[in-house]
From TrEMBL:
It is found in: Endomembrane system; Golgi apparatus. PROSITE patterns: GAE. The keyword Transport applies. The lineage of its organism: Eukaryota, Viridiplantae, Streptophyta, Embryophyta, Tracheophyta. This is GAE domain-containing protein. The keyword Protein transport applies. Gene3D superfamilies: 2.60.40.1230, Leucine-rich Repeat Variant.
Length: 510
């Protein structure tokens, strides 16, 4: 009844606010939930502070079954009606301190965005989080926000930068700050995301606190043998940065730029796509939500689709499409305008799927005789000339290989034995320092497997050492990587490294 009365006379219901708050603390779960909904409806700009205080105070003693709903409502109220950032941060830290394990990811993400944008509160916030961590290190969301802030603003914590009038100075050494991150990494109850964030914070502190750099390195190195791949990889990479790249380390780990609250709020509301295509052409909807331009002819190289159009695009689209495999067929245009140069047409039909490319050759005229020619004798003559014309097409296969790839032009008595086809090379990656070229081939009798030879060329005057090449494919593809010919890449193009890849499509022909 009171929920309906709010829409008629909100002030009349406000007079019963104290009674409603008592109902939130009732032992009956149904009364608790109804009262909480009513309190949420009563909140406005004038009463947000006292109501929030009452709810957070009750959060400290509420039952575990009710903490989730209560936490969600408090966070929603604070975000919606917060009069100032200082108050918002204080209330959110109280919630994280009492019920951090019930706070959803988007809530602490939003808190980090607000902290980042409030540059005058960085010192205050990191000190408050440091003190909160001492008493509530088991609250996951609190630990995540704390390690992020300490990694970004740890120097402000040690030097008491940005003190407010309401604060008392605290004595925190560089070693104390590192201890906090170490505790977060070692805590058995904290998950992979928290520990990964803690390792990143340590890397940043290694630049902020040069005197603790060796100790930080020792902590990071302890995870080189971790069974968790993410931690192992971060440990190896961060250790390499500390040991070998000290000149650029400070630039790599400098503070994050201020995060835009409006952009975050819009994306959180689902009004912005995860990624926007900059192509002017038609786009295809992919499962991961990324908008992509029409697929290039090379997209069929690994049987990624069945009837994709032969539209012109850069060779780089082939690599982009490796992980966007569920491409929807796009309508093709009739006519000879769709025919591309011979090299790319070969790759279009590499795996014997798709539609034969139209051609203006005599062979096409045989397959599609003119409808105006209704004479049986003329038709017979056309059929009788099929054999000689097919032989001509076979003899000129090297000049126009797309003519016979699909065996779609009838039997050819002069067709040579297929000992494995070789297709045009593709520059998969090129920068001012490195070029990677892919050479493709297929073995006879094994159409579902594509052989790729990767060639690495060093374009700089410096020798590259410890070269490692990694690749990923969708689940329905099987990738086999042979060892590279070497891990040392000579300078200035004076030599190259090759590595063979074998990709097998388990859905070939489906």
């Amino acid at each position: 009844m009171l929920m309906k009365a709010i829409t008629v006379d909100a002030q009349a219901v406000q007079r019963h606010r104290a009674t409603i708050l008592k109902c939130v603390k009732d032992s009956d779960a149904s009364i608790q939930k109804r009262a909480l909904e009513l309190v949420y409806a009563l909140v406005n700009d004038t009463n947000v502070k006292p109501l929030t205080k009452e709810l957070i105070d009750y959060l400290e003693v509420s039952d575990q079954e009710f903490k989730g709903d209560l936490t969600d409502k408090i966070c929603s109220i604070v975000e919606k009606f917060s009069p100032e950032k200082n108050w918002y941060i204080d209330q959110m830290l109280r919630v994280l301190n009492e019920a951090g394990n019930f706070v959803k990811d988007e809530v602490w993400h939003a808190l980090i965005v607000v902290i980042s944008s409030a540059s005058d509160l960085h010192g205050y916030t990191v000190r408050a989080l440091y003190k909160a961590f001492q008493t509530s290190s088991e609250q996951e969301s609190l630990v995540r926000v704390a390690v992020w802030c300490i990694g970004e603003y740890g120097d402000m914590l040690v030097n008491n930068v940005g003190m407010l009038d309401i604060e008392d100075p605290i004595m925190v050494t560089e070693s104390d700050t590192v201890d906090v991150i170490k505790i977060a990494i070692k805590h058995h109850a904290l998950d992979l995301t928290t520990k990964a964030m803690a390792l990143m914070a340590l890397l940043k502190l290694s630049s902020r606190f040069p005197s603790c750099s060796e100790r930080i390195k020792d902590i990071i190195v302890q995870h080189k043998g971790s069974f968790v791949l993410e931690l192992q990889q971060r440990s190896l990479e961060f250790n390499s940065i500390i040991e070998k790249h000290q000149k650029i380390r400070s630039a790599l780990v400098e503070r994050m730029p201020i995060l835009d609250e409006a952009t975050f709020s819009t994306r959180r509301a689902g009004l912005l796509p995860a990624a926007v295509s900059t192509s002017g052409g038609a786009s295809l909807d992919l499962p991961n939500g990324v908008a992509k331009p029409s697929a290039a002819p090379l997209v069929d190289l690994l049987d990624l689709s069945d009837d994709l159009p032969a539209s012109s695009s850069s060779d780089g689209d082939f690599l982009q499409d490796l992980l966007g495999v569920d491409l929807s067929p796009a309508p093709t245009q009739s006519g000879l305008g769709q025919i591309q140069k011979a090299g790319t047409d070969v790759l279009l039909d590499l795996l014997s799927i798709g539609t034969p490319v139209q051609s203006s050759s005599p062979t096409t005229e045989i397959l599609l005789p003119s409808q105006n020619d209704k004479s049986p004798i003329a038709t017979l003559d056309a059929r009788s000339s099929s054999s000689s014309l097919s032989a001509q097409a076979t003899s000129s296969a090297r000049a126009a290989p797309m003519m016979d790839l699909l065996d779609g032009f009838g039997p050819s008595p002069l067709k040579p034995e297929d000992n494995g086809s070789v297709y045009p090379s593709l520059v998969a990656f090129e920068s001012s320092s490195l070029r990677i070229t892919f050479n493709f081939s297929k073995q006879p009798g094994n159409p579902q497997t594509t052989l790729i030879q990767a060639t690495f060329t060093n374009l700089t005057p410096n020798v590259f050492t410890d070269l490692i090449f990694q690749a990923a494919v969708p689940k329905f593809l099987q990738l086999h990587l042979d060892p590279a010919s070497s891990n040392i890449l000579p300078a200035s193009g004076n030599g190259s490294i090759t590595q063979n890849l074998r990709v097998t499509n388990s859905q070939h022909g489906k």
